[in-house]
């Protein structure tokens, strides 16, 4: 793979759609401008191609091995880590006085996205570490920061998130891992954690596990969960690594994709000698762990987008080069063959991919940009509003790309035909890797309950109304361009539809019909996702319409491509919401009425 | 896996929906009845579980190895083959005087389906051999039958189909393999064939390749293709195996799924010593090869269905056993957890799967049953009609299950969550295996062109009108049951829709707008497929409505499940055709208008 993202598109998203340069008005970003952003992105792209994409195939074929004692990875992963840390990319978003680049989130997420597109499995290691470090930054005490965070920022320690257990995945209230207070204020941890990505490896001096556990005597369910730092190796008072902290790798899970990332079953405290340190207050661990949830979920959506994006570009380049067949009305079998990009069905699959991956990128960067504003704003009301809006969009930013950019990979593979089905081409790996995204970080079913059951209802529907308002603003901006007339009308219809259906569902909820209110929540997620995506495409079309008249050559083709892809989305995709809306508004209970024995 | 198919459903399809026992009116099947059919299916199911399902995981993990000299497979494959041949399953459809069971196709296909559901990769070997043998039965001369067919029927020789080449997949008119006549009437074969399933292995004494090649001087394109028998090993006059026939394995393709089936790049005649034997007339090879195409494509659809089916049953059993979470309106975190089948979103995913896999089974068996009638009828007009109808349905029977039963596997995996993503559970393998089906045996894009470009137009739309007629009959039969009223109305609406859209498209074709007529052919395939599937579900609902009043206990639950799944399909799936129809009827040209540089 020598293309991971279309840099022209990324620039369009950042500078034309989001006007990221305006963030320099905030003191935190005052030293940045487009040139500094582009320099970082250039460096990231080069490193991603040289040191990450180079072993994506190999680390899939030669997955991490566990000999019962230690885990070993192919050496390219360590080389990639060293280069990544040396480039300071793990500090992209952090303060300059920590050695960081102090970049806005929308830039640091774009940078992260490039690495994911190149090699999702290898990038999981630093990404988990960054997430754990962010959590300790926000919630650790000064001793914890000195002892654990500092070496993470130095790249010497890596991190993990330990939530699930074999019997508790989506239902975290049912975890059984225990934390019993020691006399010295630390805790004795015991229990088993499942699906721990990066849970063991040979890439760092130590691994800092952030572990959810229950302190005996606390409340039942999620209200009795606390959060602990549990290092793989104990540290002495000087921070030097001592021996084992009784965290044992019970086994590696062997996955369909994402194979280069170790995924572990970990036993804590089998010998009664596993020491943990409470982060934040007892019994408030879930909230602490999920403090950065919006960021994490946007990251999943962006990752899914990028696997789709890399696959789209690969299938596009293939379609331009592969000669096969002739136009449908050609009569002469001896006429030269045409590249398959000339065939309507292939173009269809390319347009669908383009609409999904560029749309997904647009939504995820929009969300990251909201978070930048929310974090930097000094207006408390604006802060609250932006976070409410972001809360609403987050389940969509996680779930929509993980559905549709997976679909993009399926289409990319189809374009390559038999070749696409072989492991000699990257499409089948991207498709396998991407299949994780609808499952982890809250399944898409959970996202749909979060969206409809919580976010829509939150604060008397304020977030929902803010989304409607912003869609209205986009419609107003688009209405200035006669060429966008049909999109404006379709978007207005979609807004009305979303409003009507939502009111109908909320009405059912208010009548206490909780079960039928939520029965088809996944359809609600799909419908809302497509309408939000139409909004993103309307925004893109508006920027393109504004720019195309003055453009020529490649630039003109780029904008024309944006407008045509918007047309594809409005003609082919958005109308799918019609039957979804009708199904939802009918409060259909078929899934509830089906007798268990009838399956 | 200990369930591959719901036998109650299979019996429903065969005896209640299709009334297969009536086939005994034909002389060929006069010795058969439900008892003989069930005995064969029982034996197949037992063998499939004992000798095929047992190594499905292992043969995926330990794929065939090529040491540069020979190919080796895990020993379980050979054991499965021996038991299969000993059971005479490769002769299920053949004459009793050949040692066959003389079963109707709908029964022999159901039997084949059970093996595919158990282990698609291993069953590919006998299935390819059966297909090659069928072709030689129809088109081989008596010497060819004695020399090559007989040992195939004895299970000593296996067969393959060699169509594609590295530069010619969908475009067979561009193959380059050459066949030059020898003085003795045989041909000198030279060229390279790609994607040859079962192209080499250690399971049989010889491999009989059926090879498409061009005789120099013939017409260009597909009209210049001839068909040849090319054995891996030469035979002497007594049929004893001599040495190599200069067919060299250049390499194995390493696929995403279907890993247990060797897939080969074969070089024919590298040393100028590859002998082939012409089958049928020169330059008529493509027609000969595709003589059995309907059967082969129904087989692909049925295989896709069965992978979906096995995955559905696995996820159903899992959902019944896995405790996780509580009802949406439960307040007490200490209440016992419920099995996940209690959650609406899981029920949704189960109903979707059930509607896809039981619908797919219904369509494929319907097609096989049509073929039985077509083959046995002594009324030439009826024969022609049935084959026309079958020609129309075949691209749908191939493509619809390969899209939606793959989707079923995706949903099944989602139900298993993280576990579903690991290689310890069969869902991810089924999903990988099933991903081949939209690609091979004519991609689904090709199927859509076949459907809209050929089958709809064939014989002044006669096939299309026959489908409409049969749908009308099903509506008439359903109208007798008040409980089916809403389905009847919806089906009538779907028939009208399909008719209107098709007329509109045909109108464009008649005006010579070939490009825009075919621009969205894949949407036409999806729309028509869903309407045909609604027809299948209406038929099932009618049978269920007829039987449910007299039924009790498990039987009543079974019929209630059928009726509820029909409701799911009519409420949730069929309405998707609305936007597809509108898009098609608008003769949308977005995919054609997109400038190449705009991608």
UniProtKB/TrEMBL annotation, chains A, B:
Domain Acyl-CoA dehydrogenase/oxidase C-terminal positions: 284-449
Superkingdom of source: Bacteria
Chain ranges of the Acetyl-CoA dehydrogenase-like C-terminal domain: 473-595
Keywords linked to the UniProt accession: FAD, Flavoprotein, Oxidoreductase
Molecular function as annotated in GO: acyl-CoA dehydrogenase activity; flavin adenine dinucleotide binding
InterPro entries: Acyl-CoA_dh-like_C_dom, Acyl-CoA_DH_CS, Acyl-CoA_Oxase/DH_mid-dom, Acyl-CoA_Oxase/DH_mid-dom_sf, AcylCo_DH-like_C, AcylCo_DH/oxidase_C, AcylCoA_DH/ox_N, AcylCoA_DH/ox_N_sf
Acyl-CoA oxidase/dehydrogenase middle domain: residues covered: 161-268
PROSITE patterns from the UniProt entry: ACYL_COA_DH_2 (PS00073)
Domain Acyl-CoA dehydrogenase/oxidase N-terminal: 37-155
Cofactors (names): FAD
Family from the record: Belongs to the acyl-CoA dehydrogenase family.
Protein name, as recorded: Acyl-CoA dehydrogenase
